[in-house]
Amino acid sequence: MLVFCAGCNCPIVDRFLLKVLDQTWHSNCVQCHECRCTLTEKCFSRDGQLFCKDDFFRRFGTKCSGCSQGIAPSDLVRRARDQVYHVTCFNCVVCGKQLSTGDQLYFLDENQFICKNDYCNSKVLADIFIREF
């Protein structure tokens, strides 16, 4: 009886075959749906599709509050309030400065914040503007 690969639909005549999600596969056909890398040790699945760890968490895991992209388990992050950001997305919306752990920041809304320097400068400008009128 011929067994067909779930990935390429060709017969499996190899000495070894893989059983993933109750289907049989050529070892080279077990690939990540996103990046097409061959999955040799672990794979993650959703809706019958296979993913490597990074692509699975990027697509279905926690999303960055700055760019709305997924955060992989290996990504460095910053947290502020209940929000999670990629390190590269943790920036002041006024000057673009990347903030580090321990830097003071001031939230404008749920996902946007400014650094202490821009906050202080904006208060000075607001005071000047109010005095002129």
Task: Reconstruct the topology from this structure.
Blueprint: E1 18-20, E2 23-25, E3 44-46, E4 49-51, H1 53-60, E5 77-80, E6 83-86, E7 105-107, E8 113-115, H2 116-132
Antiparallel strand pairs: 1-2, 3-4, 5-6, 7-8
Describe it:
The protein is an alpha+beta fold and 133 residues long. It has helices at 53-60, 116-132, and strands spanning 18-20, 23-25, 44-46, 49-51, 77-80, 83-86, 105-107, 113-115. A two-stranded antiparallel sheet has the order 1-2. Mean pLDDT is 85; it is low at 128-133.
Q: How would you concisely characterize the structure shown here?
A:
It contains 2 helices and 8 strands, in the order E-E-E-E-H-E-E-E-E-H. By secondary structure, it is of the alpha+beta class.
Gap from first CA to last CA: 89 Å
List the strand order in the largest sheet: 1-2
Using only C-alpha atoms, the radius of gyration works out to: 24 Å
The low-confidence parts are 128-133
* Element pattern in H and E: EEEEHEEEEH
The class by helix and strand makeup works out as: alpha+beta
Measured as a percent range, the helix fraction is 10-25%
Count of separate DSSP helical elements:
2
Largest sheet: 2 strands, antiparallel
Strand content: 15-25%
Shape: rod-shaped
Number of E-state strands:
8
